[in-house]
Write a structure and sequence with these properties.
27% helix; alpha+beta; two-stranded antiparallel sheet
Length: 141
């Protein structure tokens, strides 16, 4: 399993021409591939081929995808409100508070600094419990 590295320029925004049934702008998703993600994917294909051939498989071919990667473990989008020790490198504090606000907290996969290579459900649950615990500790009595 490999981790897909975030690429500067990937973004979620509003589509300029697509509208939902209420007339609001639809989502616009832009996914760019970091060069190292392409290297990881290529290396995984090469190693997988070696293992298959060592097990007796013949005519093994690695499918090339061009410039786009397919996440090593399927798509688990994360990191749209990345946690960081500094607002210059993330959108939320390590406690999940949105920088520039006093009472807006994030407690889902948006907090993840990167997209891991396995299903993030347990990490999401652990982070949510951690954020909730900090909120309860600081809640006015």
């Amino acid at each position: 399993m490999g981790q897909e590295i975030p690429a500067i320029g990937s973004a979620v925004g509003l589509a300029p021409t697509i509208r939902d049934r209420w007339g609001r702008p639809g989502a616009s998703l832009r996914k760019l591939s970091h060069p190292l993600s392409l290297d990881i994917e290529r290396g995984m294909g090469e190693q997988g081929s070696r293992w298959l051939e060592a097990a007796g498989a013949r005519n093994v071919r690695v499918q090339e995808r061009g410039g786009a990667t397919v996440s090593a473990a399927g798509e688990h989008s994360c990191g749209t409100a990345r946690m960081s020790a500094s607002e210059t490198s993330g959108a939320t504090s390590p406690e999940g508070r949105l920088y520039g606000t006093k009472r807006i907290y994030v407690a889902d996969s948006s907090l993840h600094p990167t997209n891991g290579s396995v299903n993030p459900t347990l990490t999401i649950t652990a982070n949510s419990l951690r954020v909730a615990t900090r909120l309860m500790e600081r809640w006015p009595r």
